[in-house]
Design a protein that fits this description.
Among the domains are: 185 residues, Nucleotidyltransferase, domain 5, CATH 3.30.420.40; 101 residues, no CATH class. It is built from 12 helices and 17 strands. Strand 14 and strand 15 form a beta hairpin. It starts with 9 loop residues before the first strand and ends with a helix.
């Protein structure tokens, strides 16, 4: 694709874990550097209580881990389609609607991109998962409309969408030399999205590609869900998960589920949550785990623990074991995490992924032998069990790895140039 002037519009991949902004320009990389020369900005906001300001991305995580007082908010995209979106939270002593929190972060993406581009962006193509919400078209449309409202409020006059796996397909298409039938497997932080697309060099500049998109599908499973299952299987039992009450019933699990889920961690610090835990303390046969839980809550180490679980998950893509040192909570305490434990924990999720891929092929009327290529992208696409699970379904297809965090943003930039033209 050749052009002599920059595109008018940008593409924004607002991700659950990381976000990018793409902008087509002559003789320049498509993805705009957003933080310290890096193309990704982690989707994190830290409201620094001491300095009364919001901080974003890697700096937000750094200040939180350095011990600054404040409120860390991560996995912001998970708010879309959730009941939380219509409520508010307390930030820096004031009530903040969760919808405005999305505006804080997306506005920061826009501001940083415009600073690098040295020009405003008034048109944008936003990436979106195939389904924000599984099996609920009304909630799904509401999530998209929320993003439109947020973008308009930030100064975007024209807002359109492209499915994230389709955007990844267009990025892959920019480098192929012959026609291919490609299964795009996009495993992000919050969703797994799939598209079956016919790609070819001669089709790159065609504006209307609907006839080339044979089917799209997806399921609300992503990296944060894999983190959650690893935490519940290998970490939360040390904090009372699965403990028996004196009545022989298992200990209620809401606190552990909240601790294992990025966007609900702050809920465990509420007075009501702690009162509920205190009320059951003496009804537990062995209180060792719940006492550790109280210690973790008192230290407000929930996000720190979630980060350790995430780091272990990433390490387990290449290692057989990755323990977590919990001595900051109790001398000698270690969570022994292994790849076998992780793969057993996520197998029900992988079954749903396989089911979604099977449905996609059925919807397209395509047999497994007809698929030429499986293109993996997204931050969680490197999990060996997931890749093997999908690859086993399509044994004749070659497997290609895209830019883990950049394929979607690059594809959205291509789409933005097609839709809105050049300056």
């Amino acid at each position: 694709m050749t052009f002599s002037t920059p595109a008018r519009a940008c593409g924004i991949d607002f991700g659950t874990s990381n976000s990018t902004v793409g902008w087509l320009r002559p003789d320049t990389d498509t993805l705009i550097p957003l933080e310290d020369g890096k193309i990704t900005l982690p989707s994190v906001v830290f409201f620094n209580m001491e300095e009364r300001r919001p901080v974003y991305g890697r700096l937000a995580l750094h200040e939180y881990l350095e011990g600054y007082e404040g409120r860390l908010m991560r996995s912001l995209k998970s708010l879309l389609g959730s009941k939380l979106l219509k409520s508010e939270t307390t930030v820096l002593g004031s009530a903040l609607p969760f919808k405005d929190l999305l505006g804080f972060f997306i506005g920061e993406l826009k501001q940083r991109a415009e600073a690098v581009a040295q020009r405003p962006f008034e048109e944008v193509v936003l990436g979106r998962p195939v389904f924000f919400v599984d099996d609920d078209p009304v909630a799904d449309l509401e999530a998209q409309n929320t993003l439109v409202a947020v973008a308009h409020k930030l100064g975007f006059k024209e807002v359109s969408f492209q499915y994230e796996p389709i955007a990844a397909a267009f990025d892959y298409e920019s480098g192929i030399s012959q026609e291919e039938l490609v299964l795009i497997v996009d495993i992000g932080g919050g969703t797994s999205d799939f598209s079956l697309v016919r790609l070819a060099p001669e089709r790159r500049n065609v504006a209307d590609r609907h006839s080339d998109i044979l089917a799209t599908g997806g399921v609300h499973i992503g990296g944060t869900d894999f983190d959650k299952q690893l935490s519940l299987a290998g970490v939360m039992p040390l904090f009372g998960y699965g403990s028996k009450m004196k009545s022989a019933a298992p200990m209620p699990t809401s606190t552990h589920l909240n601790l294992a889920t990025w966007h609900t961690i702050n809920a465990v610090y509420s007075a009501q949550s702690q009162r509920q835990l205190q009320s059951m303390r003496y009804d537990i046969v062995d209180p060792t785990g719940i006492d550790r839980l109280f210690q973790l809550i008192e230290r407000r180490d929930g996000h720190w623990l979630a980060m350790q679980v995430e780091d272990s998950k990433i390490a387990l893509t290449e290692q057989d074991a990755r323990p977590i040192d919990l001595s900051r909570l109790e001398p000698g305490l270690v969570a022994e995490l292994t790849r076998d434990l992780f793969e057993d924990a996520i197998e029900p999720l992988l079954e749903r992924v396989r089911g979604s891929v099977s449905q996609l092929l059925a919807d397209a009327g395509v047999g497994v032998a007809q698929v030429d290529t499986v293109f993996f992208t997204g931050g969680s696409s490197g999990i060996p069990a997931l890749r093997q699970s999908v690859a086993a379904m399509l044994p004749n297809a070659r497997h290609v790895e895209g830019n883990t965090f950049g394929s979607i943003g690059s594809g959205l930039a291509i789409e933005a140039q097609k839709r809105y033209g050049n300056c």
